[in-house]
Amino acid sequence: MYNLLLLLKITNYFMQTDFSLKDYNSFHFNVKTRYFETLKDPAYLKNAIINREFDTDNLFILGGGSNVFFRDNFHGLVLHPVGKEIEVIEENEAYIVLEVSAGYDWDEFVAWTVEKGYCGLENLSLIPGQVGAAPIQNIGAYGVEVKDYITVVKGIYLDTGADFEIPAEACRFDYRDSIFKHELRGKVFISHMQLRLNKQPDFNISYGQLEEQLKGTEITQQAIRDAVIEIREQKLPDPDVIGNAGSFFKNPIVQKAQYDFLKSQYPEIKAYPAGNDMMKISAAWMIDNARWKAYRVGDAGVHPKQALVLVNYGMAKPRDIMSLAEQIRKDILFKFGIELEMEVRLV
Ligand SMILES: Cc1cc2nc3c(=O)[nH]c(=O)nc-3n(C[C@H](O)[C@H](O)[C@H](O)COP(=O)(O)OP(=O)(O)OC[C@H]3O[C@@H](n4cnc5c(N)ncnc54)[C@H](O)[C@@H]3O)c2cc1C
């Protein structure tokens, strides 16, 4: 059970109790947390961990809430990083290394880099969430992943309060994956991330849809950002209008032999090489092919334009969306022999 005084010590602010997370999760589920506080200075958290016993099983770090799925009320403390700081760590004619704090809104940070002419992140425009969450699932879009630019992830171990600095090579970044989803899952607070961005144009417009959108346009960093925003706005539902957490499932990666078999059954199947004789199958294609796209039961549904996005049209409860997700998973397993894995983090 949480000690209120201890929690006040951590945060040094007035703490909210029985706080609704409706505006802090992009599905807009009206779930409550026992305690809620914003965290501006990681030192408060560090000191609290070092000085007192801390039940980290009941602590949840919540960024923008755009990749979480609260199944129910949360009976512990939700800490929400706030604060926006950018520090220049190193700079020369070719590149700049920046250290950014966890609470910075991701897209606001991307917009800032574009304004300054620091290249690399423009393809990742308009991804919801905070900077601190970006390394966790190695956010990616339109041919770019944040791992391409991260140099170091910094933070605090929640069990000891010790600082850590993990170089990118040790973060085991992969497709929507990293060490923070495995050994370090729920065990760290990421306070900062360092990124190395190019000062010379270094654009990646090889992704089909982006290349198409930019046809006839002068390729600048701002033009790429604008094109990405335009594509995303056409394709993806705005969570402020229709609750969703982006891709609900990951694209499964299977052996080439399994893909070849599926291709013989479904010649139009969409897939991409994933290295080492593996293929990444489009989960959206399978869900669409299985006729789930635009399916709706009550206020839970599959978005009509993007089959990978499960949506809350208003009053859906977590169990309604979860039940729909389970039906889809079972159907895909039955039809294609593939088990879909959730991309969202279940809480
Ligand atoms: C409409 C929409 C479109 C999306 N498009 C994309 C896309 O194109 N590509 C993509 O990769 N993702 C996409 N996403 C998913 C999501 O935006 C990203 O995963 C994002 O990084 C989540 O950030 P967040 O701050 O909202 O994290 P949250 O949802 O708050 O948290 C996600 C996980 O990270 C942990 N966490 C958050 N901050 C910290 C921290 N500082 N320290 C330790 N742990 C932390 C949480 O505990 C949780 O486990 C999309 C989501 C939506 C709703």
Question: What order do the helices and strands come in, and which of them pair?
Answer:
Elements: H1 4-11, E1 16-20, E2 32-39, H2 42-51, E3 59-61, E4 68-69, E5 74-81, E6 86-91, E7 95-101, H3 106-116, E8 140-141, E9 144-145, E10 150-157, E11 163-167, E12 188-198, H4 208-213, H5 221-235, E13 243-244, E14 253-255, H6 256-265, E15 271-273, E16 278-281, H7 283-289, E17 296-297, E18 300-302, E19 310-312, H8 318-336, E20 345-346
Parallel strand pairs: 2-5, 3-5, 4-20
Antiparallel strand pairs: 1-2, 6-7, 7-12, 8-9, 10-11, 10-12, 13-19, 14-16, 15-16, 17-18, 18-19
Helix pairs in contact: 1-2
Can you walk me through this structure?
By secondary structure, the protein is α+β, with helices and mostly antiparallel strands. The protein folds into 3 domains: 4-81, Uridine Diphospho-n-acetylenolpyruvylglucosamine Reductase, domain 2 (2-Layer Sandwich); 86-235, Uridine Diphospho-n-acetylenolpyruvylglucosamine Reductase, domain 3 (2-Layer Sandwich), CATH 3.30.465; 243-346, Alpha-Beta Complex (Uridine Diphospho-n-acetylenolpyruvylglucosamine Reductase, domain 1), CATH 3.90.78.10. The protein is built from 8 helices and 20 strands. The strands form 6 sheets. A 5-stranded antiparallel β-sheet has the order 6-7-12-10-11, with no helix packed on it. The chain has a 4-stranded mixed β-sheet with strand order 1-2-5-3. A 4-stranded antiparallel β-sheet has the order 13-19-18-17, covered by helices on one side. A hairpin with a 5-residue loop joins strand 10 and strand 11 (163-167). Helix 1 runs antiparallel to helix 2 (42-51). It binds flavin-adenine dinucleotide. Flavin-adenine dinucleotide is lined by residues 26, 60-68, 81, 102, 127-130, 132-134, 136-137, 139-141, 188-190, 236, 239, 244-246, 345.
